[in-house]
Design goal:
The complex is a heterodimer.
Chain A lengths: L3 E4 L2 E5 L4 E7 L6 E7 L5 E8 L4 E4 L2 E6 L4 E6 L8 E8 L6 E3 L3 E6 L1
Parallel strand pairs in A: 2-11
Antiparallel strand pairs in A: 1-3, 3-8, 4-5, 4-9, 6-7, 7-8, 9-10, 9-11
Chain B lengths: L4 E3 L2 E4 L5 E6 L6 E8 L3 E9 L2 E5 L6 E5 L5 E5 L8 E8 L9 E2 L3 E5 L1
Parallel strand pairs in B: 2-11
Antiparallel strand pairs in B: 1-3, 3-8, 4-5, 4-9, 5-6, 7-8, 9-10, 9-11
The chains are: A mainly beta, B mainly beta.
Chain lengths: 112, 114
């Protein structure tokens, strides 16, 4: 059974810091891993999708890495800004379906 | 291009009533999935539809049902509402089913049962 965990559960940092959010999964046979951002009371915004054949994916100040063999992914946020404050979720699909298994999220607060 | 559209955005219902939520996927997307999000349980999978067929169902009681239409729009229905059904219901669409397709989510429907 695939289980996804995220640490830390919450993080509070001053503006400008570089951050690393962690995501672990128990079954390494995944097709992809997706990172999302969720603002309070809102839907999920897709940030990055890493296919199983990829090691890294970058978008602006965000960089996500994937190590299937160790069951880990990291989301690196460079030069954090207050606007980055949100909950970050990682998710993997169950087998070859569209059912996503989500981690519990990391709640990030970046203060000025 | 328009994103995933969920209607209504907010609902207040009384225990025992039923409710129908709607999801319009991104144009051209044929796969739609539904999730329930609560503070205690996080994001829980409800259903997955592709080409009008339910492909997967989560561990929810039979009061939760859904369907997909020929234009890929989807609806979910909850009958005999309970207080515990209060949650944010999220819909996601994908271009095709499985195999590493990226999921895009709507803004959700906030259901409050009183």
């Amino acid at each position: 059974k695939q289980e996804v965990t995220q640490i830390p559960a919450a993080l509070s940092v001053p503006e400008g810091e570089n951050l690393v959010l962690n995501c672990s999964f128990t079954d390494s046979a995944i097709y992809n891993l997706q990172w999302f951002r969720q603002d309070p009371g809102k839907g999920l915004t897709s940030l990055l999708l890493i296919q199983s054949s990829q090691r890294e994916q970058t978008s602006g100040r965000l960089n996500a890495s994937l190590d299937k063999s160790s069951g880990r992914s990291t989301l690196y946020i460079a030069a954090s800004q207050p606007g980055d404050s949100a909950t970050y979720l990682c998710a993997v699909p169950w087998e070859d379906t569209d059912k996503l298994i989500f981690g519990t999220g990391t709640r990030l607060q970046v203060f000025p | 291009k328009a994103g995933v559209t969920q209607t209504p955005r907010y609902l207040i219902k009384t225990r025992g009533q039923q409710v129908t939520l709607s999801c319009s996927p991104i144009s051209g997307h044929r796969s739609v999935s539904w999730y329930q999000q609560t503070p205690g349980q996080g994001l829980q999978f409800l259903f997955e539809y592709f080409s009008e067929t339910q492909r997967n169902k989560g561990n929810f009681p039979g009061r939760f049902s859904g369907r997909q239409f020929s234009n890929s729009r989807s609806e979910m229905n909850v009958s005999t509402l309970e207080l515990g059904d209060s949650a944010l219901y999220l819909c996601a669409s994908s271009l095709r089913q499985g195999f590493g397709t990226e999921a895009f989510f709507g803004q959700g429907t906030r259901l409050t049962v009183v």
